[in-house]
Amino acid sequence: MMPAQTAKPRVSFMGAALRIWDLSLGQMLWSRRSVFLGLLVGGPVLLAALVRIVRALTPLGRLAINGADVGGPAIFGMMIWLLYVRFIIPVLGVFYGTALIADEVEDKTITYLFTRPIPRGAVLVGKYLAYLSCTVLLILPSVVLVYFLMVPIGGGSIGASFPSLMTDLGLLALGLAAYGAVFSLVGAWLKRPLVIGLVFAFGWEPGVLIFPGYLKQLTVAYYLQGLVPHAMPDDSTISALLQVFREVPAAVTCLAALAVITLGTLALAARAVEKREYILEQ
Amino acid sequence: MSIVTADHVSKWYGQVIGLNDVTLGIEPGITGLLGPNGAGKSTFMKLITGQLAPSKGALTVLGEPIWGNPSLYDRIGFCPEQDAFYERMTGLEWVTALLTLNGFDQKTAAEMAGRALEEVELSDVAGKKIGAYSKGMRQRVKMAQALAHNPELLILDEPLSGMDPLARRKTMRLIKEWARAGRSILVSSHILHEIESMTSNILLINQGRILAEGNVHQIRDLIDEHPHTVYVKAAEPRALAREFLAEDNVLSLKFEEGAVVVQTARPDVFYARLTDMAASGEFGPIQEVTSPDDNLQAVFQYLVK
Questions:
Q1: For B145, which residue in chain A has the nearest alpha carbon?
Q2: Last-in-domain residue among B175, B201, B221
Q3: Partner of B148 for a Cys bridge, out of B27, B58, B116, B162, CB 3.0 to 4.6 A?
Q4: Nearest-by-CA chain A residue for B47
Q5: Residue B300 pLDDT > 80, yes or no?
């Protein structure tokens, strides 16, 4: 006789997603992609260390942009906006988000996940949660190190700036969540998601943000910039341009829009994965 | 009741047809799905495991449609053809993790995974990373994940591919044991000899169509009329070749890097002799035995005519 089936409860959608998260996190953390992107997030740390060394070697010099003195907290704020929010977060979102299912398809391991009694959408959500955990683990040390390297420059107070660090970390997490969800949808829908994702992140978003009108509301960056806590230097051409970019909606609007973008695109991505046939190359 | 039914099922990949108007019913027990590479076996396997949806027609597994019906996977175990794993996980971790997706808690899943690995004789390497497994071990750990949750129906896609002769014999014995224990098993291969060792009930597939259903022995007679090619990768291929030359059934031999490729007129006799040679250990380790299917293709073409 066949061995009796062992009794077990049915797994809920989120329960299944958490089990996929558990299975995927280790794989994702130690993947070649994570090593490469780990080097990428190390870039700002190196830059901050370089600035700090230059300052240490020239203690009486002042740090200025276009003649205006800038302190460590302001530089840190600019790094958060220009390096992390506008570059690193979209890059992480594109490279991980578009690959959530594509990697498993390419490695041909998707079969094991899609022949288990769990909805395919839960596989995507679980892998999305693993992406979020993995990228937060990559970003967090980088931002904290940059913070400790940059903020003391020019007499900035680490204690006084600490609340804004927390806001920055929250902002980055929201950015990772939103971009990851958007690009997981791109990955679930399209055959060449990486190219489309890069065009969206570095063509569409910066492009429409420059122009007045409603198109910018179709970007993630527009809502993220409303949450950036730092004041930018305002007496130069660059800062004037930055101020144009920073036509900001209210924080509540930004939070609500980011929540809608994240949950909406993730739900659409899960639905797309449920319906799509994945044909593995022989 | 049939465990799998297909009613005029077709599957297209764009302009290419993978399966063409297949109607069949597979009964409980062991059924062999036999056909050359590209015949439509994998498409059929993917359809009955719900990885693909039929372009046309209706398909049921254990009485229910399989596409978009994940709860059915509680009753099905699938061993895919591809050699794909989470290489950094150990065998035990991997099977346990997959069992948790079936709803088992971590402790129960680990116990069940341990039992499944024991069943496929991998207990001693359960704690080793899959990346360090031999080809035969990798095949067996795939089978362990398929049977670990005690499914009613096991679907095994080319489970013997790349195994050495002893592992093949053990695996075939295991498959028969699982069937005796009450499981239904659908096993695919492009090697008639393998299927014949497990069951006399076959589905013969070529060019996306089911050519024949039923008894394997009639097909075998046709196959035996054609030379059968076997690729044997071994530590000492020349020593093996010397022994093969003394066999009446061996028609020709040629060497490839670390391997000998044999044409035989009697595959059943040849495989039995090869298994004995592997068991004796006199000829060094035999790492891999595969069979290119050109000869089988010839038989299929003959049948189609």
A1: A112
A2: B221
A3: B116
A4: A277
A5: no
